[in-house]
Predict the 3D structure of the following.
Amino acid sequence: MKVLWSWLCELCDLDRAPTVEDGARALTRGGIEIEQLVDLGAGFRGVVVAEVVGKHPHPHADKLTLVDVITERGGAATQVVCGAPNVPEPGRKVLWAQVGATLPAKSDTMAGAPASSGRTWLTLAAKAIKGVMSPGMLCAEDELGLSEDHAGIVVLDADDRTPLGATAQRALGLDDWLLDVNAPANRGDLLGHIGVARELVAMLGGRLVPPDAGVQGATGEPEVAIAIASAEQCARYVGGVIEGLRVQPSPARIARRLRAVGVRPISNLVDVTNYVLFELGQPLHAFDADKLELEISVTPANDGEQFTTLDNAARTLMPSDLVIRDGGRAVALAGVMGGRDSEVSAATTRVMLESASFHAMSVRRTARRLGLHSEASQRFERGVDPELAGFAWRRAAHLLVQVGGGRVTRAPRDAYPGRREPKPIHVRLARVRAVTGVALDAAGCTDALVRLGFTVAPDGSALDVTPPSARADVTREVDAVEEILRVTGYDQVPSTLPELHEVPPQPPPDRADLARAALAAAGASEAITYAFQSAERCGALGLAATDRRSQPIAIRNPMSEQQAVMRTSLLPNLIAAVARNQSYGRGDVVLFEVGAVFLRRGEGAAEQPLHELADEPVVAAGVLAGRRAAQLGEGAPWDAFDAKALALEAIRAVAGPVAVHTRATASVAYLHPGIAGELVLDREVIGWFGELHPAVRARLGVVGPVFAFEVELDKLRLAEPPQMRPIPRFPGSVRDVSLLLADSIPAARIEEVISGAAEPLVTGVRLVEDYRDAKLGAGMKSMLWSIAYRSPERTLTDVEVDRAHETIVGRLVENLPAQRR
Amino acid sequence: MSPGSSALIANLEQLGDEFLAVIRPLGDEQTIRAAQAQFLGKKGKVSELMKELGKLPAGERPAVGAAVNKVKQTIESQVAARLGELADAAAQADLARSVDVTLPARPVGGGHLHLLTLVRQEAVQIFAELGFVVAEGPQIESDWHNFEALGIPKDHPARDMQDTFFLSEEILLRSHTSPVQVRTMLTQKPPIRIVAPGLVYRRDDDLTHSPMFTQLEGLAVDEGISFADLKGVLLHFVKRFFARDLGLRFRPSYFQFTEPSAEVDMQCSFCGGSGCRVCKHTGWVEIGGSGVVDPVVFEHCGIDPERYTGFAFGMGLERMAMLRHGVNDIKFYYEGDIRFLEQF
């Protein structure tokens, strides 16, 4: 909320008059965030209040006037040339920009805009106008940058009391500051100047000065009848008539204050309701009493009831909306907006002024549903103190009498079915100390609460405290503890470390972090990408409709189509990141991400609403594009085996040195059907690697081949701490075998046959050469394998090694089948 | 001395000179050893001459024997000398090699952990020193865990503070890591000391806000925990994380699930508190929210609010990384731009 410093100061009598900076600091210390502090007078300089003492026609121009002005009672007059049509008679005060004054070059922004708003300035020089020298000028509002108004020069009210020679800022109420206050969500009381004043009083010491709410002559019986259907929906409704009003513009003081807090002045009747709203935080509504029966009822709307609001929009209502009726007809949406048919107009002379307290949830629901967020609804949504309604009515009536020429002959009707007796809160001093960690005593606590307007009664080692009615947020002991601490100062709390009684059990290491460390060590760089993406990007993998991952969970209220669904795979974002890096000229990249993907549980299709939480398996995925780094020149291009290596690194980082088997697969939609493998551990597929399908890469805008892998980390069992195996004490022997075999037999098959031979002396198998050549025969390849033999007990003889080797070769030849070369 | 003996001795002496001539041009050990065998081997030249020995008078044989030994020694020392020369030459040649050491290093590794991962791991480590262990929870959460259990019912204005992404009426993207607190307190008895780092989601997007960001939440519940402990723990964290003695300022604030609540400001790590662009010339930067756990949360989680007290805090790791590493736009964290990733 915007708070005007002068208005705030008017509502409190502080022990020591603070500067605005002191005030802002005190409020901040108390937890009221001042988002911005604006000097309203920043801007023009050198413009003073002058009195007109004479006016003469310009000798050479009909539309110009020569005006004699003084800036000092009895001082010498200066003649200024003025082109405005409204030069006042002698005795009235105007604003004179003297030679040397700084004025905005363009009147494009309002006063109070931040100094950095890019406005350009000019310095006024004496200048001849149609042959007559003019030392400066008399200013219109636009020339001071206050508004667009150029209809005439500013003439101060006849009763203006600004001394001659004072700054124009002072005369215009601009020697002031605007505080942009960010009120916490539970502090509806801070949405009026009086609430902020209460805080200032608590923080700086002093007393609150409520505004004048005196109303004379309201002695007659109330003429308004009020029926409230539910005390919960409407705790209080004060309604009464003010008559004899004359609609006209508000006096400058009210208009300026409203403009400063961001409200456009309209007429005295409307302005007074807004003024009181900003002053006290109580929303008011003025009905034209001549368009209204004074039989008021507050009831739920009928289902489908039609109602036209002030903004001329036809609304269809629901029973959850609360309406004000006269007789049977709806005349206002309670707390949200009035109706067109009972709106005040220029011809209004009698108003029925409403000052009521509506239920926060009800107003909030209606305002949300209809998208009608007004100054009034905002306040009701945060809760308005029912105790305030009567005082606010009288304050508004007081002002309507003062500035609208009105009179009040009858007392307002005050229907208050929701009255609650204030309930004291029992605050134990021991609890205060336990929560805050500060050694506060009864006197200290009492002082803090009394400053905030609480009533405090000692009760042994506790206090019975009653908050002021405005502080509906304080209902529990702990709320009062916070209030005590707020006033005492959070800076009074010492810093201590909590005692550690026992060392908590440590959770197992984080799989994701194990994989991350391994992948980064293996040369990949970690990316973290949005967990949501466009439906189009999610679809780029080309997954079958039966695949869970093709049915992403949609966000109901996404910020954009780019963030519409939850990711079901890490790959699309990573591939898109490759494309982006390519566009920066960084085509050689290895990226990985380890994170959750989001999958619907059960069979639900994408359109069905989510009834339960999702599966969030943690996946490690990576992409390689371009070439590896070389010392000089170009390195070798990445290929599928680099992707495989990274996948295995991630697996082993989590699961330890487990046996992972590879087999070819052509069923992974987003991988090249001929260059794709699945990784199998204990008969379960735990990951995939290969070359990205060219169609997928084209959809995501990547140029050139991309290699990718994915590992489902949740499927891995965490490795136990590795146990040391004995270091071999005896030398081993190596035998090679060269095989000629069909090229459809994968390397994994050879390893399988070798391990199937269960030859205890074998300690290692290594493929040395995989050679394909037409000379070998169609569909044939040659492979050279190297097999290592060793015994833990002795040095093997050649005969023993040869015997073992020949057994294995025999198996290979027979089982694959293969020829020995 | 018979002429035979004299001639034999002369021949033996001559063999020494002859050997020297043979090995002088030889450049490797193998040929030198072969030459040595030609002279000293079983069928070598010295042995050949020795066959004459039997024909000589017995009294002269010792003198001839001495000559044989002498020539053997001569040849052996010549071999040793020549091999030594060759070794020296080889050592010299080896030392004569040189490379341009200013050539670029051969690339190794080349991978980087994400800055947010590094910052998270470090933060978790610092809290671990004070006995906090990591707890986790789902990112897709129920309305109850994210809001209701924390004292934020439907239609409560506090829900506006965190404009939330909804997946259905009851299911949402968690808007803070606080549901992890709830899940922990529902399943564990005090004493509890956890940190919950994790991704959270809010409808917010500008230079300093991202619709997805990383929060680190802390919770301590025990007998005798107070606001003072909260201050001490956060002060410890800031000192360790920034490795500087930066002051903290606690400002009263409002969070539904803590009371009293506080915004935590830290002395600006860029200017040390003297005022700069980063802290908007205030000397302070906001690093998170905190407070004493509201009894209502304990009640929802079945913990006795009379016996136990606790504190909770939450901070954005993007912000901590920004303050320590000068990241000036939050979007860099999520774009996978290698030019950003490779800097950390």
Residues 107-117 of chain A have pLDDT under 50 and may be disordered. The CA atoms of residues 301 and 319 of chain A lie 5 Å apart. The longest strand of chain A covers residues 45-57. DSSP finds 19 helices and 40 strands in chain A.
